[in-house]
Amino acid sequence: MSGTDTGTAGGERLRRWRMVLGGGEADGTGCALTGRDAAMDAALGALYGGGGEAGSRRTSGARSAGLGGSAPNVARWLGDIRTYFPSSVVQVMQRDAIERLGLAALLLEPEMLEAVEPDVHLVGTLLSLNKAMPETTKETARAVVRKVVEQLEKKLAARTRATLTGALDRSARISRPRHHDIDWDRTIRANLKNYLPEYRTVVPERLIGYGRAAQSVKKEVILCIDQSGSMAASVVYASVFGAVLASMRSIATRLVVFDTAVVDLTDQLDDPVDVLFGTQLGGGTDINRALAYCQSKITRPVDTVVVLISDLYEGGIRNEMLKRVAAMKAAGVEFVTLLALSDEGAPAYDREHAAALAALGAPAFACTPDLFPEVMAAALEKRPLPTP
Fold first, then answer.
1. Which contiguous run of DSSP H or E holds residue 262?
2. Count of CB atoms within 10 A of residue 129's CB?
3. In terms of C-beta density within 10 A (0-12 exposed, 13-18 middle, 19 or more buried), how is residue 318 classed?
4. Listed residue (218, 216, 196, 217) closest to 205, CA to CA
5. Which among 66, 183, 267, 317 is least surrounded, fewest beta carbons within 10 Å?
6. Phi, psi (deg, nearest 5) at residue 162
7. Dist CA 342 CA 203 (whole Å)
8. Does the pLDDT value for residue 6 go beyond 70?
9. Is 271 helix (H, G, I), strand (E, B) or coil?
10. Cα 270 to Cα 240: distance, rounded to the nearest angstrom
């Protein structure tokens, strides 16, 4: 690699410390960077330093470049970081640039969108800009969102379907099956205590089988999603999972998004991109109104799972919200509260409301996309949820 003397372990350590500390008199290394090292340092300095122009190629001195508000500079910088850093690092730097330097407005330009690395956080930012997005940008934005959605579906769909199909099969097992519906493996295991050595056989006192209507709707799932600005990543993942659930014949899936208003996007579940562009991130929160709508759509409480995805900062009527949850649970509904559905770590949430829900037997917890299929499987089978 080009740069200062890297022929010795000491030289390589010095070079690495110089990259970390960012240069200038205070870093104490006295090490100058050249070539690729200098270019990487300039790209980092454009975001985490200050002053200067993005993409400048400074070979010595403090890390002092900057992105400013110029679209050409930002576009060049986006190209640079994709050249020098792996995709996971690029996504973090893009997010930092949007949050730290207020560059969201530049994403309304198609040429800028073509230069970025698509990820869940970028999709959330685009959705929050949806109303301000000019028609010339919308087609490019949809292409970016679709690319992320397709990547998530490829990653999550197969495991989700397999996990939930197994849960549905187990929940459909019956104790008086017809002969061709008997699950012989489980029946034999359940009756091993009835083994007769003299006859070398098991007496099946209890038969275990599967329900006959394998392709009929067995469960109903309602995803109720808070679309306030802090829930952006959760909205993206929930929309993808909603589309996956809707593709399973044995689950009737409804997807509802809310802020202070409630929007039912069930008829768009065949395309999660349409679902996402049907949301409007930001605004207030009225969980009570959203749950009232969901409650009105429940026809088979014992076979229904309601998943509320929200940070629980309620702007509506708190006591009414809790009464609705209690009423649904009393009717036999499985109620799940997810404070977040994302990989972003521990979310901020209303702890008082979370405690109140837990007291009703509906614990609230954050859930990663990888854990979500297991959570849904447990809810469908009415067994304890695998809380992290």
1. strand 262-264
2. 16
3. middle
4. 196
5. 267
6. -65, -45
7. 49
8. no
9. coil
10. 10
Q: Which two tokens stand for residue 371?
A: 């854990």
What is each CA distance from 9 to 34, 120, 230, in whole angstroms? 18, 39, 45
Is the CB of residue 55 less than 8 Å from the CB of residue 46?
A: yes
pLDDT band at 243 (very low <50, low <70, confident <90, very high): very high
Per-residue pLDDT at 117 exceeds 90: no
Residue type, 120: V
- What mean pLDDT is predicted for residues 74-81? 74
Which has more confidence, 300 or 169? 300
DSSP assigned state of 20: H
What are the φ/ψ torsions at residue 379 (nearest 5 degrees)?
-65, -40
- Say if CB 349 and CB 311 are below 8 A apart: yes
Copy the structure tokens of residue 120: 């869940």
CB atoms within 10 A of CB 134: 9
Q: pLDDT of 155-196, one tens digit each? A: 999 999 999 988 887 766 555 566 666 777 778 887 888 888
CA distance 156 to 167: 17
CA proximity to 58, closest of 39, 72, 75: 39
Q: What is the pLDDT of residues 216-235, one digit of tens each?
A: 668 999 999 999 877 889 99
Query: Following DSSP, what letter does each residue of 72-136 receive, concatenated?
Result: HHHHHHHHHHHHHS-HHHHHHHHHHHHHHH--GGGGGSHHHHTTS---HHHHHHHHHTGGG--HH
**Per-residue model confidence as pLDDT tens digits over 59-77:** 344 444 456 555 556 767 7
Q: How big is the CA angle at 255 (ends 119 and 105), to the nearest 5 degrees?
A: 35
Round to whole Å and give the CA distance between 62 and 364: 47
Residue 244 clears pLDDT 80, i.e. is over it: yes
Distance between alpha carbon 29 and the CA centroid of its chain, in Å?
A: 42
What totals of helices (H) and strands (E) does the chain contain, helices first?
A: 14, 8
Q: 282: left (phi > 0), else alpha (psi -120 to 50), else beta? A: left
| 155 φ/ψ angles, rounded to the nearest 5 degrees | -75, -35
What does the mean pLDDT of the chain come to?
A: 81
Which amino acid, residue 22? G
